[in-house]
Specification:
The chain is an alpha+beta fold. The chain has 10 helices and 11 strands. It folds into 2 domains: 163 residues, Ribosomal Protein S5, domain 2, CATH 3.30.230.10; 125 residues, 2-Layer Sandwich (Alpha-Beta Plaits). Helix 1 links the parallel strand 3 and strand 4.
């Protein structure tokens, strides 16, 4: 097989009350340049090397093996994968989902499986357990999905996303997903659950209508996870205050955190925001509407 390149977008889950269901693809990417080799090897940046295995323990490889096995393929032909990663690891921007989706696409390319996006999502949910990050990584745009271990439904929104910008405020520490899950309560009082569900329903309706001001208000009304995960992200009140002062339509903890995201109108001037949040990395991002892609380079002219 010739060389090929896979590109997977970062994702941001929940958007406030859309817990484990709503996700957004962003224009930060993991890029995998794949070429045949004598043995499996992942070429990583110095920054990623302490966190990502460079051998068959890599989640990309494991996800590819899982995918291939579903179609009766026992062994992956060895490749060298040169990985360029712009997605911060363990910061709530879907780094593990990029690996899962990248691995599924890797198997898809290696064996010419011609998987549909729906098939990719089904496999990704089997690996990941929930669809909030993997769905937008596959479809692009904003996705609203439900998965109970067997039944999977997903709806994609993409219209109007060019009208908003997402300011990702990234602290210099990690939050482990396991800890972020463990801090959530086992039960929520019925009345509170009804209220939380209502906010999520309005969020989805506002996304469908491209009512960004209403989307932003709903982002602030989460009762499912942010009141609890705030203990792990002490910066959230301060950052929320600054984002609010600068006219953010809404703001929320991205995934399990610690990244916090403010949503703004696309014509916003961000100069003062950078100075007021000088202690943080800030990435100004827009929605990716393509999802995972794979490209075979054109042959060179002889």
């Amino acid at each position: 097989m010739n060389t090929f390149t896979i590109k997977v977008p970062a994702t941001s889950a929940n958007l406030g009350p859309g817990f484990d269901s709503v996700g957004l693809a962003l224009d930060l990417y993991v890029t995998l340049e794949c070429e045949p080799a004598k043995e499996w090897n992942f070429v990583l940046s110095q920054q990623d090397a302490p966190f990502i295995p460079n051998d068959k323990n890599n989640l990309i490889y494991k996800s590819a093996v899982f995918t291939a096995a579903k179609f009766g393929k026992d062994e992956l032909p060895p490749h060298q994968i040169r990985m360029t990663n712009d997605v911060p690891i363990a910061r709530g921007l879907g780094s593990s989902s990029t690996a899962v989706v990248g691995g599924i696409e890797l198997a898809n390319q290696l064996f010419s499986l011609n998987l549909t996006k729906s098939q990719k999502l089904q496999i990704a949910c089997e690996i990941e357990g929930h669809p909030d990050n993997v769905a937008p990584a596959i479809y692009g745009g904003i996705t609203v999905s439900s998965y109970d271990g067997s039944n999977l439904e997903s709806v994609r929104f993409s219209k109007g996303l060019e009208n908003v910008v997402f300011a990702a405020v990234i602290p210099d520490y990690h939050v482990e997903t396991e800890k972020a899950r463990a801090i959530l309560p086992d039960e929520v009082p019925y009345k509170e659950a009804v209220y939380a569900s209502g906010m999520a329903n309005v969020l989805v309706a506002a996304l469908a209508e491209q009512d960004w001001a209403l989307v932003g208000r709903m982002m602030k009304q989460d009762k499912w996870h942010q009141p609890y995960r705030g203990e792990l992200i002490p910066d959230f009140p301060k950052v929320s205050n600054v984002l609010n002062t600068h006219g953010a339509l809404g703001y929320y903890i991205s995934g399990a955190g610690p990244t916090m995201i403010g949503m703004f109108n696309a014509d916003k001037d961000f100069k003062n925001l950078f100075s007021d949040l000088a202690d943080y990395q800030i990435d100004l991002l827009q929605a990716d509407t393509n999802g995972v892609t794979a490209v075979n380079p054109a042959p060179m002219n002889q």
